[in-house]
Amino acid sequence: MLKQTAESILSLFFPRVCLACGNSLFKNEEILCFSCVYKLPKTNFHFEEDNAVARQFWGKINFSSAASFYYFTKGSKVQHLVHQLKYKGYKEIGFHVGKLYGTELLKSSRFNSVTSVIPVPLHPRKQAKRGYNQAEWFARGLAESMKIDLDTATLIRALASETQTRKSRFNRWENVKEIFKVNDIARQAGKHVLLVDDVITTGSTLEAAGHELFRIPGIKISVASIACAVK
Predict the structure, then answer these.
(1) Which pick of 38, 96, 124, 188 has the fewest CB atoms within 10 Å?
(2) Under-70 pLDDT residues of the chain
(3) What is the pLDDT, as a whole number, of residue 192?
């Protein structure tokens, strides 16, 4: 009773709201309201070999499979959710969405053989400034729900890069093509890994990270993100 009273008082000053739509959360809701959980625009790309995300990489890099959880459009609830994750300190969004997407990926034969998840790393200076890596929190959620390893040691970001916002595809690629390094080639040799980021636009960041990871003998790489800006 005391706990419920304290929570009620706390909610008056710090109301719990859905981080996608802004509506108040009910008692059993967390991060997202049930309406957004079911109505945010899911791609279902994890069931399709030929999908818009996979086509981003054709002829550039041999990823095994590629998918995103949601469609990303300007002014949408998904954009608001990602903005809250990246710039407003709500790292728990990444973990929550990762858990939701992980349960979906396990239903797909294209992804259920993955043994570990690798988040695209931030440069240490940028991560220190932000306080966390949003892709890593997404990866944590995926790892928990898929019951696989989280690997934040194999792939490192050796060089800082400029923001990718408003850059062309060519300039995005030039901005990231040599910034990643593999720290331990033996760790993922012969394994199927899931390389993840928050949003896929041109795919240049994942492409650059993937090229470095393909230095590992026998590795199989699939990619996934919270959202994609392609259809």
Answers:
(1) 38
(2) 1-14, 160-177, 231
(3) 98
Smallest Cα–Cα separation from 91: which of 61, 132, 46, 35? Answer: 132
Structure tokens at 128: 């220190």
Q: What is the C-alpha to C-alpha distance for residues 146 and 99, in angstroms, rounded to an integer?
A: 8
The CA distance from 151 to 7, in Å, is 36
Q: Where are the domains of the chain?
A: 45-228
Alpha carbon 145 to its chain centroid, in Å, reads 14
Give the phi and the psi of residue 170 in degrees, each rounded to 5.
-60, -45
pTM of the model: 0.87
Distance, CA of 20 to chain centre: 16
Does domain 45-228 sit in CATH 3.40.50.2020?
A: yes
Structure tokens belonging to residue 17: 């709201």
Q: What is the DSSP string of the chain?
A: -HHHHHHHHHHHHS--B-TTT-PBPPTT-BSB-HHHHHHS-B--GGG-SS-HHHHHHTTT---S-EEEEEE--TTSHHHHHHHHHHHSS-THHHHHHHHHHHHHHTT-TTTTT--EEEEPPPPHHHHHHHSS-HHHHHHHHHHHHHT-EE--SSEEE-S-----TT--HHHHHHHHTT-EEES-TTTTTT-EEEEEEEEESS-HHHHHHHHHHTTSTT-EEEEEEEEES--
70 phi and psi, to 5 degrees? -120, 155
Tokens representing 49 are 């070999």
In 3D space, the residue among 180, 181, 64 whose CA is nearest the CA of residue 112 turns out to be 64
Task: Specify the amino acid at residue 1.
Answer: M
